[in-house]
Amino acid sequence: MKLCNHHPWLRICEQGYETSLIDTGRLQTLGSRFEQPEDIYPSLIVLVGQQAKSVALEKLFDVPRSRLFKSKPYIGDIDLHVASAPPSSRRPILIATGSVGSERVRHTPNRHRCRDGSLWPLRTGPGRSESHHMQRTEQAIYSRLLLPFTDVFCIFASDLGGFRGVASQLAGWLRDVTGPTSTPFTRPSVVVVSDKIPLTQMAETEAQKALLLLLKEETSQDPSVLFSFIEVVAVPPSQKFRPQGSMEHLKQQLLLRVRKAENCRREARTLYSLTHFTAFFESACEHFSASGSDPFDFIRASRSHNPLAEDHALHLTNFFKACDTARDLTNFAVPVIASSLMIDSYPPNCHVFDSAQVFQSLYRDALREALGGRVVSFEGSPDIILRSAVLKLIQGKLSQYFDSLVSGTELPSASLHLQVLQQFVKGWRRIRSDVTCLCCIRRPPQYRFPCGHCFCETCIQIFGQTQPTRPWTYQVSSCFLCKRVWDQDITVAVKPPTSGVSILSIDGGGTRAIIPLTVLRRLQERIGLPIPIQKFFKVEAL
């Protein structure tokens, strides 16, 4: 199938009193061009401007111009391209292009027939005028939606009316937010392109100082809150763009900023694969639609299909009650809980966020609630310990286990968690719970083992053994906690996720009871599989 060559990515549409964000699906289309998107780590450069931006796009990244000046852009129009690169490249550069300052309002949500898109209603009301309201929405798209994903903003000063227009644009982004626009947050850099200054480093430095002074006049917000660096790059006037290499200096500066952003993202663990980048951006659009003023939380977005249990604090409380002394808490509960947080945070194929960020975003509040007051005491013991100290110990242990997970041992989090659990065999022999699975400390248990320990179905699936011919039947030969071995393996049959709940009801009795059994036998013969007919039903009523 021929790939779609349409470039539109994001659009804003105003229909009556409702404003909507349109995602055309362009990012997903580009992702389909790569054979293994989970091994591709893209960078995003956002070019902001009009004519000079469009000319530079072709000169810098070999992206051909199409229908360049046929019509004026609408407010909020953003296109997406990919820079030409070798097929084996694992670091492609995505290039988003947008024009600011337009007053043309889109009233029809045109979506391309060649791909599916999404329309996200925005929770905003009209401003002083239709165009003013749409321009505020456009500003929010840059400062709240795109900014957490962007490595470099490249702004063409001549298209915005000079440095004053650039300062006004950046000030608007700074006023629109009061802090990091996402959790975690990696600040992009800003490259301002000017063709009105001499092509010297001294001129660029002086222009940078002038731009920062203009920005200070526009807003009192510190630009370092959002941007890692702001610089000015001089280029020849647009009529002199034609010679080969006329914009090589700008290209090298952009690539330099991309490499620095890559290093920062690797260190902060915010370098996303194309698979995760695409999924996160879709979640960010949904978040922007529902609550455009709140920071986007990448960590919580990664848990959209596996949300935290609402009763997590209750299960933690049940486990803390098993500790009789401060020594039990620090030497037993702390490592076990930290390990349970590790296996919960880092399932297979997930993005590996920094453990400190994960702890703050997901678990700190539940642990504070489970520990109760500022001072933790114990019945029958004079020991006391500060709640803050316990939180610090758990976070430290989680960081220690996280380092083991990413150190190249190639052991999954489940194997590391099982190792931690089985370090405390003696401790587990005196602890039982019918309301909390002590293996994950997250869910209520469903199965009791002969040793008295109870486990949830998820832990059975993680630590049990399966057979190729029976993928949803799990064999357990010993307890995951106390390691007690029993004579005969325990078999647990789990309902496959693609299976519904089947109920068999047999009515009739006496001489007529043979009829349903005969029908069932004939059904089993017609199915022709080596599976007893009763295995097809979850509930049987006679």
From TrEMBL:
The keyword Zinc-finger applies. Residues 437-483 form the RING-type domain. PROSITE patterns: ZF_RING_1 (PS00518), ZF_RING_2 (PS50089). The keyword Hydrolase does not apply. InterPro entries: Znf_RING, Znf_RING_CS. Keywords: Metal-binding, Zinc, Zinc-finger. GO terms for molecular function: zinc ion binding. This is RING-type domain-containing protein. It comes from Exophiala spinifera.
